[in-house]
Automatic annotation (TrEMBL):
It comes from Paradesertivirga mongoliensis. It is a multi-pass membrane protein. The chain crosses the membrane at residues 18-37, 49-68, 74-91. InterPro entries: cNMP-bd_dom (IPR000595), DUF421 (IPR007353), UPF0702_alpha/beta_dom_sf (IPR023090). Belongs to the UPF0702 family. PROSITE patterns: CNMP_BINDING_3. Keywords: Cell membrane, Membrane, Transmembrane, Transmembrane helix. Residues 107-170 form the Cyclic nucleotide-binding domain. This is DUF421 domain-containing protein. It is found in: Cell membrane.
């Protein structure tokens, strides 16, 4: 590689003193981003909804280019920022006023487990794998599905859980790999088994398909109480 190629690799088409300008541009854009996010009214970004992600992407691309492209000015970026943050605030305001609008923009919370039963239809609608969901439950100290009364996936993607009281805990599908991976289409001893696909519990003594979801792998149900 000769010198000329190396120079264009490092500096592009710009002269060395443009680097100083990049420094200044970056500081200005950094301040823009900070001000924009502070005026958006959002307090943190632990969980972003799709709508908020759109805003972040919009701001991000408007902020990046003026930092290092000489032919991109600061003012157009500033206008993008004002428009995007203005839209965000307007839509957030409208979502608070009109529920159908909120559901259109943000989606709505869906039941994954209702009264101890998997809500398969909602589960299929969500792009959430069973593995991810089980991991989420384990993080919340759930050992088997019989401990969970309701699970709801919020629009932010986080999962809210309600538990059965100790005396209401039902036999359920074990979620820890050691037991869960013993799932099998064979039934080794008669008794309460949980469907490995949907968590439906049946008293069975020989191989059969689940009456709820028609899959045929079973795991021995367990009834341990929830300890945190
Ligand atoms: Zn099933």
């Amino acid at each position: 590689m000769d010198n000329i190629e190396l120079e264009s690799l490092l500096l592009g088409d710009e002269p060395v003193d443009f680097l100083l300008e990049v420094l200044l541009r970056s500081v200005i854009m950094f301040c823009f981003i900070l001000i924009a996010l502070r005026t958006s009214g959002k307090r943190g970004i632990k969980q972003l909804s799709i709508f908020e992600l759109v805003i972040i992407i919009g701001l991000g691309s408007a902020a990046g280019d003026p930092m290092f492209y000489k032919d991109v000015g600061i003012v157009p970026a500033l206008i993008v920022f004002i428009v995007v943050v203005g839209l965000y605030r307007t839509v957030t305001w409208a979502s608070g006023k009109f529920l159908p609008f909120e559901q259109l923009i943000e989606g709505k919370p869906l039941y994954l487990i209702r009264n101890g039963k998997f809500s398969i239809e909602d589960f299929d609608k969500e792009d959430l794998s069973q593995d991810e969901f089980f991991a989420e439950l384990r993080i919340n100290h759930v050992e088997h599905l019989g401990q969970v009364r309701n699970a709801i996936i919020e629009t932010s993607g986080s999962i809210s859980l309600l538990f059965f009281d100790d005396k209401e805990v039902q036999p359920g599908l074990p979620l820890y790999p050691d037991l869960y991976h013993k799932k099998s289409i064979e039934i080794h001893k008669p008794g309460l088994h949980a469907c490995a696909h949907c968590g439906n519990v049946e008293d069975i003594s020989k191989p059969k398909t689940c009456t709820v979801c028609k899959h045929n792998e079973w795991v021995l149900a367990i009834t341990t109480l929830r300890r945190t």
